[in-house]
Amino acid sequence: MTLIELPPIGIAGIGTYLPARVMTGAEIAARTGLPEFVVLEKMGIRQVHLAGPDDTITAMACRAGERALAQAKLAPQDIDLVVYHGSEYKDHIVWSAASKIQNLLGATNAYAFEMYALCAGAPIAYKAVRDMMRLDPRLNNVLLVSASRENDLIDFDNMRTRFMFNFGAGGGAVVFQRGLDRNLVLESAVKTDGTLADTVIMTPADEGVALLPGEMGSLHGRLDVHNAAYMAERLGAVSLDRFVEVITESVEQSGYRLDDLRFLGITHMKRSFYLEILQAVGLTAEQSVYLEDYGHIQSVDQALALELGLAQGKIKPGDLIVLAGAGTGYTWSATAFRWG
Asked: What is the rounded average pLDDT of the residues 240-259?
């Protein structure tokens, strides 16, 4: 049997978009009644960005996509595929944000679709798109975009959702290019614990966030937690191990050892758990970025952490890096890259 040599897939461009308006950790403390030091130090939230009136999901994803294309030195018409892997809380419900983003960008030669895995979505999208591109010579340039404004859905009076008080708004994008032999997209790993599938859900509400445009009805809702005690117990028992497993597996499947890892970009979480994960995979805080000035922007976090890591000089040519996340449901995911 003849082995087919698969082409490399590399990142040609990165882009992010953050709304100008912010809510500080002190403001979150005042709204929730939590002590300020708890929000700032334990929860690790100095500020989060809030979407303005024009910061729809598609608008934010589009702005991030434009910046990624500019960095890649590509025109929108050079894109063969647009994949949206962000929040399901979009401009409309039961609706494709990907096609709207394709149209806003002017990516007229691209087809578009969505993938969804909540806050674990970025590494899963990276895996799926890389594998598609390696096997399909028609996919030379693919734009992966994400956006979230799920902080709209948080009730600051509901302490069951306090671990979501870090939610912020923004957009992120990366361009994958077939045949690019730098910034290589390597292997991924994913683990799911379906016993947590029904713990975080949208629940109806008499007021608050409108989930439908006014002309379509009056459906309202908020994010809430069912069986909070089980969720806390289960995550406390397995989450660290699952993060270490997917990070390690992505590295080893790429042909490296965990002690080759030089940088971890990971979703925002409480500071103590973030530091625990770093220690468990043999890294220090200088080999990562903590998103305390941004909060958690769903599957935007990975593009943002990558961009910040490069800007801060924490990622150097030749470095093995991993981008990781976890999403309610509950799924943990990671993708390895060889940078430079």
From this structure: 98
